[in-house]
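HUMAN: You are asked to prepare a plain-text protein record giving the amino acid sequence and the backbone structure tokens, both parts labelled.

ASSISTANT:
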Amino acid sequence: MAEDYPKTVSELEQRFASEAACWEYLCGLRWPEGFVCPRCQSAQAWRMGRGLWLCRQCRHQVSVKAGTIFHDSRLPLRVWFRLMWYVISQKHGVSALGLQRALGLGSYETAWTCLHKLRRAMVRPGRDRLSGAVDVDETYVGGERPGKRGRGAAGKSLVVIAAQHEAAAIGRIRLVRVADAAGSHLERAVVQSVEPGSVVRTDGWSGYAGVRALGYVHQVVGPAAALGENLLPRCHRVASLLKRWLLGTHQGAVRSKQLEYYLDEFTFRFNRRHSRHRGKLFYRLAQQAVQIDPVPYARIVRPQPVGAS
């Protein structure tokens, strides 16, 4: 399926004025080569209307929303589409309260839940890892707390930042929350974020000592972790922007157990910061929304093990 998306908000409203138009669009995104039954993999089916298909082989009835972030949602797809457009059109993101007011949603909880579901859809399944030269460092996210600063700080969440080199600028990034700065956690974050064979640049923290054995070209840019504050400027720039975004858009009201959702959104926005077409961002978000598993409310509010996402 060729990339097909509205170019303006007016075109969005005109094109998706009915539920049927939204169903048709999602069908094209979910099954670009034609319908495939999720139960028996048959391509033979009858269209039943309202986004429903009946498999000719196993008689399984399939909704285009089933198994996606729209699964069991009571919101009309027309509202979801307007919601997605509004979210991607705000340069610095939007809070749940701002979304509720802008779209006239019935409750703050509805807006909050929709935002978190969309944040999960901002991570493309099977996305490429970073490659080439990549700087890796950590930062602590959370409110000001008394006590120890730096690695081992109490009461904050540790986030590993991987920033790809793009000439003298910052290319794509990855953000991974980890339990602590132990080698096993940092190495897992590197493997999750960076393609083997790439050049990984870190400071001299001992937690990165095993990176070379994992198949990377490891470059230490400082002899000791204490010297590393300005040694990895790309990572420090990303850390600064992340904290400013959390404090500005979300007023610092990000709970630790939902931090991964916000990291996903920041990564999505940062990696597409040069995109000139809001419609293409809408297309990517809608495309990924039908590729990921449902995100029920109970899963969103339940604390997840760090590094599980």
